[in-house]
Amino acid sequence: MRILQATSEFFPYSKTGGLADMVAGLSGALVEAGQEVTVVSPLYQGIRSRLPGLEAFGPEILLPLGSRDFSGQWWKSTESNGLVLLFLEQEHFYGRNGIYMEDGDGYWDNPERFMFFSKAVAQLAGDYDVVHVHDWQTAFVPMLLKAFGDRNDIPRTVLTIHNLAYQGQCEGARFEISNLPPEQFHQEGPEFWGSLNFLKAGLHFSDAITTVSPRYAAEILTPEFGEGMEGVLQSRASVLRGILNGVDYDEWNTDNNPHLAASYGPGNLSGKRECKRALQEQVGLPLKDVPLFGMVSRLAEQKGTDILIKALSAILGDTDMQFVGLGSGDLRLADELSKLQRAHPEQFVFFDGYSNPMAHQIEAGADYFVMPSRFEPCGLNQLYSLRYGTIPIVNGVGGLKDTVQDLTQPDPTGIVLEHLTVVELSNSLLDACAIFGTQRQLDMVEAAFRQNFGWDASCSKYMDIYQL
């Protein structure tokens, strides 16, 4: 099959979260399964320097956004496995310091930036059997295809929701940038209480809708997790399916990993102990054999960062433990984490930002990995943790509940909270400290190593959807 994957970010060339990893992992698995795959994404600042061999693909394009025309150019690169990458150059829209925002503020013209991208993707779509779009940034593509395309030659469209909380909502007047007839701005499309909602367009016009875990697919049909879209999703429940994200184990492994101080695996934990010592040295923590907790996260209330800060504030100082955190996002939460570091410099270290090597080093060096998300469509870090023999401590929602077995279950692989409260999270951290160094912890580590969340099974499920 000829499959077009349209995404606003793609690892390793652009990334703010799990979306980039998922599209890269799925695309690679589809190629290995014998499919012809092209990934399209904007040409952000810095990508060209990483891919000096980029070649122009097709002529310059000219697309309207309302009454103004904007030009762009596709650039092509082919990976060693045969995966084709097309990057859309438009300096005004994509030649910026950030992907979606700078200094904590989203770009005011994000609707224009991603409508331009969506229109460019729709132009390419006729050459493919399936167009798979991801999140709100590309969710307009199915509507554009059905509004402007030849109905006898429209490829099958699939929309994956990575996080329903982000919908691309803006003023209704900006519907004009779609250049669709005004009468198409209605409830069975992108109109939402008078505003323009990119994701809602995709929910109505995609042939199939997926989420990144089975539990999240069920959760978003409810008011608690539906983010105002539960009614639309209920009306399309017959084409909604949850497919768990996979892990690229070529990237996330503990054997000859260039980011890690030593190799290790099941039955051989000496290398993991070496990774822990290397992490402590690197971040300036005392070289002590105490429970070391890790976090790599976007800083947001969704991720439960505020609850984690309160829980740590309650037990640090009185508990023999260490914590290393890496993340960026909400400036207020970053400031609170920095205050914790100043208050407990011998126990707590926080780095504001993202580093892929450090993410690997935290996953390998930590004994426990903390993910207290209020909701989590899938989550990838708990899957990385399992492969790294690092016990995840998670809230029991979405993909976290789907992938981590609690202490109360047979062959537990982690600690799962029933309710996200400061008290329950504090107690879970203390429970982790209590079993540290015991046979119970070692049994959990071995059980974690046995988990397999590779892309093969998930790739097969996507192929079933593509071929309907």
How would you explain this protein's 3D organization?
It is a single chain. The protein has helices at about 20-30, 45-50, 90-95, 110-125, 135-140, 140-150, 200-205, 215-220, 230-235, 270-285, 305-315, 330-345, 355-365, 380-385, 400-405, 420-435, 440-450, 455-465; strands at about 1-5, 35-40, 55-65, 70-80, 85-90, 100, 105, 130-135, 155-160, 170, 190, 195, 210, 240, 290-300, 320-330, 350, 370, 390-395, 415. With about 475 residues, it is α/β, with parallel strands linked by helices. The strands form four sheets. Strands 3-4-5-2-1-8-9-13-14 form a nine-stranded mixed β-sheet, with helices on both faces. A six-stranded parallel β-sheet has the order 17-16-15-18-19-20, sandwiched between helices. The protein has a three-stranded antiparallel β-sheet with strand order 10-12-11. α1 links the parallel β1 (about 1-5) and β2. α4 (about 110-125) packs across α6, α10 packs across α13 and α11 (about 305-315) packs parallel to α12. The chain is globular.
Instruction: Determine Rg (CA atoms, Å).
Output: 23 Å
Strand content: 15-25%
The neighbouring-strand order within the major sheet is 3-4-5-2-1-8-9-13-14
Can you tell me the residue ranges where pLDDT is under 50 for at least 5 consecutive residues?
none
Main beta sheet: strand number and arrangement?
9 strands, mixed
Q: Give the end-to-end Cα distance, rounded to a whole number of Å.
A: 12 Å
Compute the number of helices.
18
Morphology: globular
Structural class: alpha/beta
Number of strands: 20
Tell me roughly what share of residues is in helical segments.
25-40%
Mean pLDDT: 96
